């Protein structure tokens, strides 16, 4: 993700923080200052925000380590002002595995709340609770606030709606009886129904509920489309979508040659060759960057992407679905018996999906 800085590694997983996190810290300091808090009170407030994000990291680590047990690696964890994001190599599709991976995050929060509970005394009634929490974060209520936040995070994430963990837990439970794409559709509709409730409630109480409702509706729709696409691709192989006709350019040609081909054809990504052998790829963005920085006469090999991605012609499309879409700007090379036979890109896969979806709908309409 652009705009991130690496903090280090935990269990071999890269930990990154987005630059906008600093804006959140600055905002907290500003709000506390405007409220008339002194330096010590501001210190406790910033420290509390930091503790919450440590909690978020532990939550995401819970998912990552649970996934690791099933052979699924986590590419990285990124801290954002709105929370954390763990990028799994792929999502577990077996119901039992998805259930364990999804529930691991909220269980971390409940575990932290349980541990914190041993070191605090909970107020006997709501009035005492309100009194202890008044006046902002301080040394006396720091752990009480930490306890409450972890309970809230666990409950929030267990809401049965995508993209929260609860939506995946519900999908996993439904998938024990239904096919995965059907279970996803049911879970998504339940989540969207809850989201409508959030939006209506938000107009009469907290407007933030409107944001949550819209977030859930969009997340549920994206998850449904994603799962439906993978289901449509089931059984098909790279062989079924490879492109045997593609534009190639010699690596010693100037960038101008690629620009001319870009303007004279529908191709936006080109295969770069040297003595007839693939050595890289060149997309539109790389051309524009080269033109703006070095001009149109520099050789293509100085601007091309040399990191080639190879696919076996017999690989199932459902197994490489995530990889293809995470390399939207790349042209992938298809191999058969160690021989280069064609290419594949995201646009071609999307067109294949569209055609199969239309055919499937027509088949259902005729039944």
Automatic annotation (TrEMBL):
The chain crosses the membrane at residues 12-33, 39-58, 99-122, 142-162, 193-220. Its main location: membrane. Keywords: CBS domain, Cell membrane, Hydrolase, Membrane, Metal-binding, Metalloprotease, Protease, Repeat, Transmembrane, Transmembrane helix, Zinc. The keyword Transmembrane applies. Residues 304-360 form the CBS domain. It is a multi-pass membrane protein. The active site is at 60. Binds 1 zinc ion per subunit. This is Zinc metalloprotease. It comes from Flavobacterium granuli. The lineage of its organism: Bacteria, Pseudomonadati, Bacteroidota, Flavobacteriia, Flavobacteriales.
